[in-house]
Amino acid sequence: MSETMATPQRTWKRPPSISNPTLRWSLIIGAVVYLIAAHATIDVNWGRVYEGLERGKKFILAFSNPNFVDRWDDIYDGMLESILMAFSSTVAGVIISIPIGLGAARNISPLPVYLVCRAIIALSRALHEIIVAILLVAIFGFGPLAGFLTLSFATIGFLSKLLAEDIEDTDKSQAEAIKATGSSWLQWINYGIQPQVMPRLIGLSIYRLDINFRESAILGLVGAGGIGATLNTAFDRYEFDTAAAIILTIIVIVMALEYSSGLIRARLQ
Amino acid sequence: MAIKQTANGTKIWALRDTKEQLTNWAGWLVGTAFFMYCWNQISLQTDWDFFWDAPAIAADIGGRAMPPKWGYITELWAPLWDTLNIATLGTILALIMAIPVAFLAARNTTPSKLILRPLALLIIVSSRSINSLIWALLLVAIIGPGVFAGLIAISLRSIGFCAKLLYEAIEEIDEKQVEAITATGASRWQVMAYGILPQIMPALAGITVFRWDINIRESTVLGLVGAGGIGLQMQGSLNILAWPQVSLILLVILIAVLISEWVSAKVRGAII
Questions:
Q1: CB nearest A128 (choices: B46, B126, B220)
Q2: Using one digit for the tens of pLDDT, what is the confidence trace for A88-120?
Q3: Are residues B38 and B80 in the same domain?
Q4: Which range marks the domain in which residue B131 is found?
Q5: Same structural domain for residues B95 and B172?
Q6: Mean pLDDT, chain B, as a whole number?
Q7: Residue B50 falls within a domain, yes or no?
Q8: Domain A69-268, CATH class in plain words
Q9: In chain B, which residues have their Cβ closer than 8 Å to the Cβ of A131?
Q10: What is the pLDDT of residues B108-148, one digit of tens each?
Q11: Searching chain A, which residue's CA lies closest to the CA of residue B261?
């Protein structure tokens, strides 16, 4: 007590978030060095950026006056194709990811199956949709089929991984109770595991539908169908009003999807 | 769950009663019909000859792509560095913009529920619904091709993601700590700095690393629309059908993504 009395100017200092000083300082110095190095290698053509501001303003103004009319047929066809691709690829992706998800859950599958399924998941997650789309367009030709396959493939990585993690978290005793009744493997999965993961599986599938629609909007850039091709053409021709119309449509559909998926998920849980 | 009774009076257990069964069945019917319609539309626009050729084509491309042209790696270091910069600086820039948006969007910290909160939510939704490639396409048209366009595209796309997760974290904070800080007579900013920020710090760090990992993956393809990074090299190689170079680039991307995923998992493990 007397000590505090003697030094009334003692103040409280916020404890640092990283307590080890060596680690803290090396992180700070590393960050500074990185920022300087990164800054030195990025050359920004400020003149070009400044010139672009005019076009940027035009684009933003285009949002107040989007042009749905002139290219309506293209927009409609592209949007419909995007929706079709998103829906069908989600269905196909979910159907394929269920067995892979079962295989990738360590508590119900043997090690070799587990490793194969995990490898499939890792490959699907590591490759960006556009890269897969480029390869599939080269193999299957232009059109929505390549987009459908791409999105299905991407869905597998996403859904199987989360499904497998959910299966690993299931309550063991319920599954054991079903097994004790002398059920076959299929019955065990169907009555012991499936009811426990079903709400989450449905929620994730709907969420993935949402993602697939958003992704389908870019597949057109590489010729895999959907609204992306129309959007790309609009940008190439500097038809910002049409581009704004397409982007607004995408936002509205995504919002509607997100809202309805929120409602469905809230009802399930 | 329902109990059914047969004509001779025995009771049978059933998972669903008749009404539930019917709705369930109707749902499946509609879903299947819509799927068949989708599939039909896709099938109509597909040249099935190309489809049956696919294995041969795939084998042909695979044969040409193997082995990768290892010497080409010397030309990939610079684009790889650009890719890293796009992802890292883009994430930092996004965070700087996402933090205020998150504070405006969280129910317990927003200064006005009527005007600013919907506005912040609108920013989040628009940023999230537009893919970073579309942002890149747009920015290349506006400010010209290059790393800078990619960097801005990544940051614009990440605002929504970071702000959404962050505002959910803010809404879940312990109000007692905030109250305690307020009771000391702290100003609004001091409450944020000492009451709220320490509570969301782990979430913030986790979100940052998570998004950085995603951004690495996304920035590898931004070059396809001219926004810098290793995607530029890929586009160039694809245009001249230099498959051995393409396979090397794909390999490099795969390794980069796996490394970033590993780093992100390690850092998140250390934080939580």
A1: B220
A2: 999 999 999 999 998 888 888 888 998 999 888
A3: no
A4: 76-271
A5: yes
A6: 84
A7: no
A8: mainly alpha
A9: 220-221, 234, 250, 253
A10: 888 888 888 888 888 888 888 888 888 888 888 888 788 88
A11: A126
**Burial degree of B74 (CB within 10 A; 0-12, 13-18, 19+):** exposed
Residue pair A101/A189 in contact (Cβ under 8 Å)? The answer is: no
Residue B62 belongs to a domain: no
Name which of A128, A207, A258, A264 to mutate to probe chain B: the one with the most chain B Cβ atoms within 10 A of its Cβ: A128
Task: Give the closest-approach CA distance of A217 to chain B in angstroms.
Answer: 8
Mutate to test the interface with A, among B137, B164, B194 (most CBs of A within 10 A): B137
CA–CA separation, B131 and A93 (whole Å) = 21
A138 neighbourhood in chain B, CB within 8 Å: 57, 61
Q: Which of B120, B121, B155 is nearest to B135 (CA)?
A: B155
B78 vs B120: CA distance, rounded Å: 37
**B24 and B123 housed in the same domain:** no
Residue B179, Cα to own-chain centre: how many angstroms? 35
- Phi/psi for B91 (5° steps) reads -65, -45
Q: How many domains does chain B have?
A: 2
Amino acid found at A149 = L
Chain A residues in contact with B152 (beta carbon < 8 A): none
B193-208: per-residue pLDDT in tens?
A: 888 888 888 888 888 8
- Cross-chain CB nearest to B42 (options A38, A88, A222): A88
The whole-model pTM stands at: 0.81
Same domain, B30 and B97: no
